[in-house]
């Protein structure tokens, strides 16, 4: 067979094979890295943060301190999907949603019952957005949130918005919240889902003498059964950290007043919640065990005194946080959720009898045990 005949046969054979003719080069896609949801004038507003990955990739040519431009797109519609789709009309490039790392909800959309349900449904259905996306609420304008840079002018991908775990590992207060977890908590009876509240502060960092804004988790939005959120400050929720399985490291002053005797680092607390009845009324008992070590000594007090003071501080924080939720019947400690998990039959029985009402005395007992592991390098200054 002649050579040209063989070539023709090969070409005919290859024609039916699929190729990559419709593929896009990575530089020809608009990668959305964060999504913002807002509600105003009876319309849903969607904000998208788009980054050029060539500007944020850590390569040999990467320059720390070089300004990283951020592009923000805005879409409007009667639904979340319509608002997201409206961005396509002016995007110039194909928009890719698979790299969304964070979704930020404005306070306005969190207060709208049906809108929040709609947002949950749209995000859960959209095939490119993953379940392990971080979720936040905010009181700040979404454009201000999405243009925020990190320290050393690093990209938004190097901030609390996209990588909160590093900060949480050193100071555990409000835990990061992921999409897959909020989905399960919204669908589970008795649970009180919690969205971290992200804000911006200029009071801490400066570049030379210029004030530089940085992200801050200043509290959280707790979502009730009607899917309406209510904001609580970090101080309101300081007792929640002792009931968090992911809590790694958190500081307390003992005693908790203007003249503390010492500062302790509390690590990896364990807790259990039991329910019981007293005078035919539902009660809960919270048990907490935590380890600690001395981080700073102001007064020369004994280890036993530090232990008792630490136990009192933790107990008071748990009680205070529980009571902060009573005016709005917000179960800040998820006591009723724990009841449903352990005894759903009893939960339904009490619900039918309208006895799932939180009162001051519903939190019956809080028992705390603190084990001080060591006192640092200056062991000789502390006497048991």
SSE blueprint and pairings:
Layout: H1 3-14, E1 29-40, E2 43-51, H2 53-56, E3 71-77, H3 80-86, E4 94-96, E5 102-106, H4 107-110, H5 113-125, E6 134-138, H6 142-146, H7 165-170, H8 179-187, E7 194-207, E8 210-223, E9 229-233, E10 249-254, E11 262-278, E12 281-297, H9 303-324, H10 335-342, H11 344-352, E13 363-374
Parallel strand pairs: 1-4, 1-5, 5-6, 12-13
Antiparallel strand pairs: 1-2, 2-3, 7-8, 8-9, 10-11, 11-12
What do these coordinates show?
The chain folds into 2 domains: 27-54 and 64-234, no CATH class; 238-384, GMP Synthetase, Chain A, domain 3 (2-Layer Sandwich). Helix 10 packs across helix 11. Strand 11 and strand 12 (281-297) form a beta hairpin. Strands 1, 2, 3, 4, 5 and 6 form a 6-stranded mixed beta sheet that branches. It has 11 helices and 13 strands. It is globular. The chain is α/β, with parallel strands linked by helices and 384 residues long. Keywords: Germination, Lipoprotein, Membrane, Palmitate, Signal. This is Ger(X)C family spore germination protein. Its main location: membrane. InterPro entries: GerAC_N, Spore_GerAC-like, Spore_GerAC-like_C, Spore_GerAC_C_sf.
Order of helices and strands: HEEHEHEEHHEHHHEEEEEEHHHE
Average pLDDT rating: 85
Count of alpha and pi helical runs: 11
Task: Give the biggest beta sheet.
Answer: 6 strands, mixed
Oligomer: single chain
**Protein structure class:** alpha/beta
Poorly predicted parts: 380-384
Query: What separation lies between the terminal Cα atoms?
Result: 98 Å
Which overall shape is indicated by the principal axes computed on the Cα atoms? Answer: globular
Radius of gyration: 26 Å
